[in-house]
Amino acid sequence: MEGGARLERMLGLNYEQLTGILSIVSFDELCLMIRNVLDSMLDNVYETRNVKNADTLSTVLHYIRENFSRQITLDDAAHSVYLSPFYLSHTFKDELGITFIEYLTRVRMEEAMKMLADKSLSMQAIAEGVGYDDASYFSKVFKKNVGVTPNKYRMRLP
Predict the structure, then answer these.
(1) If phi over 0 gives left and psi between -120 and 50 gives alpha, with beta otherwise, what is residue 132?
(2) Which of 50, 94, 109, 121 is the most exposed place for a label (fewest CB within 10 A)?
(3) E strand residue ranges, 11-71
(4) d(CA 102, CA 60)
(5) Does residue 30 contact residue 121 with C-beta atoms inside 8 Å?
(6) Can you list the residues of the chain whose pLDDT is less than 50?
(7) What is the pTM assigned to this prediction?
(8) Nearest alpha-carbon partner for 60 in 77, 83, 84
């Protein structure tokens, strides 16, 4: 992002790779995937060097990544950079192509996928760890965003 990459494209790449990693069966496939991801990320940096509000957005994205496990709102994020929620909302959509809540949800789903690898953690603990009080609501959001339930995702992990 600091190099000027478009967030929605970078998130899309990251999200695609996290969900697609389960289909990798060989070391060669893994190496090819890593090379393709790095190529795509570098291409994205070079294509988009002029994000108008890069510093502000970088600060907000960092805020979200640091606080995703809490019940944070657009108001909280806007307050962290001294902007109105209205302005931040429009900046997110205009510059990144996604909404604040879409980004927050993606961050939470990425973290949930990591946490699901620890089989000692209950679904409730994972849900709470990524900012959801209700495990069944977390499961619904996870399935909508990842394509499978958290339990099915966990069963596919090595």
Answers:
(1) beta
(2) 50
(3) none
(4) 14
(5) no
(6) 1-3, 46-49
(7) 0.70
(8) 77
